[in-house]
Amino acid sequence: MSGTDPDLGLFIAGRWTHGSGNRSVAVQNPATARAVGELPLATADDLDAALTAATDAFPAWRATSPVRRGEILRTAAGLVRERAETIAHAITRELGKPLREARAEIGTAVEHIEWAAEEGRRAYGRVIPSREPGVLQSTRREPLGPIAGFAPWNAPAITPARKISGALGAGCTLVLKPAEETPTPALHLVAALEDAGLPPGVLNVVFGDPAAVSDRLLAAPQIMGATFTGSTAVGTLLLGKGAPTAKKMTMELGGYAPVFVLPDADPEAVADSAVVATMRNSGQVCTSPSRFYVHADLHERFVARFAERAAALRVGDPFDDTVQMGPVATEARVSAMAELTADARSRGLTVAAGGHRVERDGSFWAPTLLAGVDDDAMIANVEPFGPMAATTPFHHLDDAIISANRLPFGLAAYVWSNDLAAVTRLTDALDAGSISVNRWQASLPETPFGGMGASGLGMEGGIEGLEAFQRVKYVNHR
Ligand code: NAD
Q1: How far is Cα 428 from Cα 414, in angstroms, rounded to an integer?
Q2: Which atom of ligand 1 is nearest to the CA of 329?
């Protein structure tokens, strides 16, 4: 492995700093429960300095041609690719994601940056036929302004990459607060952009007490938009904080993806691939397939195979290439898994696999399947965001659709069937921002990704991902 990690710190106005205060927080390796670094936290003065830097840098960055902005982003993407192994190790060390998955995450993060670099050049407006001769009516898409961004810990390279490249590619400046649990991958992105020639102040990265940081950034009138990925509870709080200054907000919030396994599906084949998809990143993925509605004729076979495969997963040190699942990110996730399992047991539900902590240092939970769940169980209503799935047998598809749609979330959904009529019925009826049929792929850099209802507002990725950081101006003249 070549390369070194940047020092843990803040990046404000083109300078690396430990901030003006003396508060810091330990960064932990969840696979060992040991501290792996000390992260300095921003003071109110540091946040103000970041706000000023983003505001001051905006006019020149806005005036920079999209071609030049794209060049800087593409150069940075190349540097991230060169440094992939170092960054992947940082992901695994701070999050516990198996190294193999961490490497794949870097590849996707790079693709996001490349997509935004290209798409920023296509901020097309349109000409609208006028009612009168000699009048030209047109629209243009302009950069929104300085942006505040908040990224969580579960995809510590991809999510910051999406927010940074989307904002910068559209011509905005950004103050980003990545997750304090997993700071290093975002700092690598900063270093790559700095090395690629990004002007000072265009990107600023701060860490701190999350509520205090969002209070300050979202109250600032000079911040024109915000982008957040995380829970619905926090996202709606941030919407409130941004409301008095009428900020344009993109919210990627929690999901709880239903999966429909229809009578014509092969239950063993679906279970085999489902275990891999569900337990990826220890299930800490907002699009994780985790509520399985399985036709009653297939339910028993599906549960047996899923449980067998889940129990056989090798859980352990995420740096070990033979390991298939690492720890969860924090003890909070272990507690959440324990609570969901206890509720299931108290209702007499079948714990077909797992259902317990893995006894070793660190925050490990065994891959778990709760089978035969009805709508009253906690697991039927609360997104696990961990290595856990639930099955519910159904006889009539419409009953399963009603059950799936009754939750306020609508992020991803999956369907396994070749019955065209049933697939069409599902793709029409499901409240979900992304529906995948006979595959588990929910989003790519070039496809729009976002939720309905409590799963969020706006989109990341695709053409829509740039629009989140743009405003539309209508101009008409004679
Ligand atoms: P959380 O919403 O509390 O935290 C997510 C991120 O938001 C963290 O990085 C945190 O630093 C930040 N945050 C928390 N409070 C904040 C505030 N007041 N202002 C600004 N930022 C703040 O979620 P969690 O408890 O860490 O994770 C579990 C839940 O979060 C899951 O149930 C899942 O729904 C959701 N989640 C979703 C995604 C996603 O990709 N959509 C990612 C991570 C977490």
Answers
A1: 13
A2: 26
DSSP assignment of 124-169, as one string?
A: --EE---SSTT-EEEEEEEE--SEEEE--SSSTTHHHHHHHHHHHH
Q: 248 φ, ψ to 5°?
A: -80, 125
Q: Closest Cα to residue 187, out of 156, 165, 216, 208?
A: 156
- Strands 136-143 and 470-477, by their bridges, are antiparallel
ipTM: 0.96
Q: Which two tokens stand for residue 391?
A: 């099955």
Helices 158-169 and 184-195: crossing angle in degrees, nearest 10, is 40
383 belongs to the catalytic site = no
Query: Which phi and psi angles does 68 have, rounded to 5°?
Result: -65, -40
Whether the CA torsion 103, 104, 110, 113 is positive or negative: it is negative
Encoded amino acid at 341, one letter: T
DSSP 364: -
Catalytic residue among 286, 383, 460, 467: 286
Residue 286 annotated to the active site:
yes
Q: What are phi and psi of 255, to 5 degrees?
A: -135, 180
Q: pTM of the predicted model, to two decimals? A: 0.96
Rounded Cα distance between 146 and 453, Å, is 27
Using DSSP, state whether 299 is helix, strand or coil: helix
- Structure tokens belonging to residue 28: 């932990």
**Which tokens go with 27?**
């960064």
Residue 236 Cα to ligand 1 middle (Å): 11
Distance CA 463, CA 66 (A): 15
Please give the domain boundaries of the chain with CATH numbers for all domains. Answer: 10-253+455-477 (3.40.605.10), 257-444 (3.40.309.10)
Ligand 1 proximity of 252 Cβ (cutoff 6 Å): yes
Cα 304 from Cα 44, distance rounded (Å) = 55
User: 389 to each of 9, 212, 272, 357, how far by Cα in Å?
Assistant: 37, 35, 14, 15
Residues in the chain, how many?
478
Write out pLDDT tens, residues 442-461.
899 999 999 999 999 999 99
**Which residue carries 């959904």 as its tokens?**
413
Tokens of 82: 């060169």
Q: Kindly state if the Cβ of 234 falls inside 6 Å of ligand 1.
A: yes
Q: What is the pLDDT of residues 305-329, one digit of tens each?
A: 999 999 999 999 999 999 999 999 9
Q: Using CB atoms within 10 A of its CB, is residue 475 exposed (0-12), middle (13-18) or buried (19+)?
A: exposed
Eight-state DSSP code of residue 96? -
Is the CB–ligand 1 distance for residue 286 below 6 Å? yes
User: Using 50, 70 and 90 to split pLDDT, how confident is the model at 29?
Assistant: very high
